[in-house]
Amino acid sequence: MAQRRVQRRPSLSFPSSRRFAAWRRCFVLVVVTATIYPLVSRIARDKGVGPNNSPDWIIVLLDRRTLLQGAAVAVSATVVAQPGAAVALPEKSASPSDQFPTVRVNETTVRLMQVFDETWSTSYMGAFPMDIALDPANESILRLNWDQRLFAVSGSAVLTVRGQLVTTVAVDSGEGHLTIRLPLGTERVFVPTRIINPYPNEAIGAPARAEVIVTGPNGENPSQVTFDAESVTAGAWSVEAYVDWASVSGSVVPVGVSLISVGPGDMPAGVAFSLVYPSVAGAPHLSDFDQYDESAVAVEFSSAAGLTTALLTSKVAAKSGTKFGFTFDRNQSDSEPQSVPNFVPRLELVSESAPAGMRRSEAHASFPITDSGRHLSTYAPEATA
Q1: Is 9 in a helix, a strand, or coil?
Q2: 69 membership: H or E segment, kind and range
Q3: CB crowding 189-216: b at 16 or more within 10 Å, else e
Q4: Residue 377's closest CA among 341, 336, 320, 324?
Q5: 3-class secondary-structure state, position 40
Q6: Structure confidence by residue, pLDDT tens digits, 185-225
Q7: Are strands 251-261 and 151-153 parallel, antiparallel or unpaired?
């Protein structure tokens, strides 16, 4: 019997198990290498290994376990990170590093206070650094030193730790020394501070140096920023300004202004005050100029929209004790003020006009309201017979 030859169709089966295993290893190697290369590159750069643009150094960093762990991380990220979905990054581990913070100070937030030597001829500027920036690294100790005669800590220190605000206990000795333990990852330290104005007894000499010192837990690897008290040869002087207020037609207005040179040096020519008030009070008139004449102070004013702005500028170097007085067309109250005023009048020093050496008298401005916004008085009209 003749045998019938059966022609088989081409097989669609996979290659042999050995060939398949080799093909699979090759495919996995290509996919894993392409997927985790950027991840490994970043790790290597952080460790300082290998050039940035050469792939050869991967072999030095990766053993089999590292390769498999990297592949698992890459595959997990690929599965979880769906398009448009927010992916939470894993928190950094709190394991210690070999690095310690480098300290920097935001100089725009340094608090300053001026004092003088015993002869009032040289001024010094004391400093307190409130805002301290750090390169986040290992746990560390921050120490802050300053002149306790001029500054005081006014609240809890606030840390920025990995983007989160954290209040912390600061050990304040009360003698111008502060110690704060900084946790791993601290990026910023803010120390709230108030200024202690020693006026009128600010002839205390050069203030103590301000220092910010950051070290490791045992005092190792110190990094610091210091602020020495800068000195300027400038005679001390100051001025005190006072206003008598009244209520005219329901508006609080000035009825008298006094500018007094308080020394010890002369109040320089060119010092100016700005006075803004409802126009119902009229114009200011220089009425008291001591040993000087009416040209000692220039008075310029203009009115618009019911308000008058007057600029009072000294034209002479006024000796200590000199008083310049001003009066107005209206000089007494005729009504009670509005309970909620539409405008609050004010007298303020024009700071740009004040040269070096000006003492902080705390009397460089005047407002007819309290700190809480209430009127200083009812301004009830005087009783008439």
Answers
A1: coil
A2: helix 64-80
A3: bbbebeeebbeeebbbebbbebbbbbbb
A4: 336
A5: helix
A6: 999 999 999 999 999 999 999 999 999 999 988 888 889 99
A7: unpaired
Residue 99: predicted pLDDT: 58
pLDDT, tens digit, for every residue of 25-59? 544 444 444 444 444 344 444 444 443 433 333 32
Q: How far is CA 137 from CA 166, 168, 178, 179, 245, in A?
A: 17, 18, 21, 18, 58
Residue of 197 and 171 predicted with greater confidence: 197
Q: How far apart are CA 312 and CA 209, in angstroms?
A: 39
Rounded CA gap, 131 and 110, in Å?
A: 7
CA dist 127 and 107 (Å) reads 10
Structure tokens at 53: 């643009």
* Relative orientation angle of helices 17-47 and 64-80, to the nearest 10 degrees: 90
175 exposed, middle or buried (CB, 10 Å; 0-12, 13-18, 19+)? exposed
Average pLDDT, the chain: 77
Going by DSSP bridges, is the β-strand pair 230-233/122-128 parallel, antiparallel, or unpaired?
A: antiparallel
How far is 171 from 169, CA to CA, in rounded Å?
A: 6
Q: Please tell me whether the overall predicted TM-score, pTM, comes out greater than 0.90 for this model.
A: no
Which residues fall within 8 angstroms of residue 40, CB to CB, at 6 or more apart?
A: 58, 61, 62, 70
The residue among 161, 170, 113, 111 whose CA lies nearest residue 139 is: 161
Q: Tell me how far apart the alpha carbons of residues 76 and 68 are, in angstroms, rounded to a whole number.
A: 12
**What is the DSSP code (8-state) at residue 49?**
-
Structure tokens at 235: 């005679």
* Bond prior to 207 in cis (omega within 30° of 0): no
pLDDT tens track for 111-154: 999 999 999 999 999 999 999 999 866 789 999 999 999 999 98
CA nearest to 276, candidates 295, 260, 257, 298: 257
User: Which amino acid belongs to residue 93?
Assistant: S
d(CA 273, CA 364): 9
Six token digits for residue 326: 């001003």
